[in-house]
Task: inverse folding
């Protein structure tokens, strides 16, 4: 899962059938990467959220057949914006990733 900030709503009047009527949000990571996420929780613009990717993103949607690979799973009540820079360093080096060995 990743922590991202909702920076806007995305309205698309024409969609592929597999996307259905899912709400869409534009999100930006702490590193500045902009993406589009489905939003089953109704996250408002400006809020930090946590999102999941890949097949877990589909499973996080009410309609499990929704064609998505990024879904907002929850709205964060409190977030220190300085934390992402520290956690990015750990991810890059593999330190503190939480992965078990063995």
Result:
């Amino acid at each position: 899962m990743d922590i991202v900030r909702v920076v806007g709503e995305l309205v698309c009047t024409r969609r592929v059938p597999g996307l259905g009527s899912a709400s869409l949000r534009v999100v930006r990571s702490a590193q500045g990467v902009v993406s589009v996420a489905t939003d089953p929780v109704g996250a408002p613009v400006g809020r930090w959220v946590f999102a999941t990717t890949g097949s877990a993103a589909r499973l996080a949607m009410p309609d499990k057949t929704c064609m998505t690979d990024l879904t907002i799973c929850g709205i964060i009540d409190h977030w220190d914006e300085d934390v992402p820079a520290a956690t990015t360093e750990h991810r890059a080096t593999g330190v503190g990733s939480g992965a078990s060995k063995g």
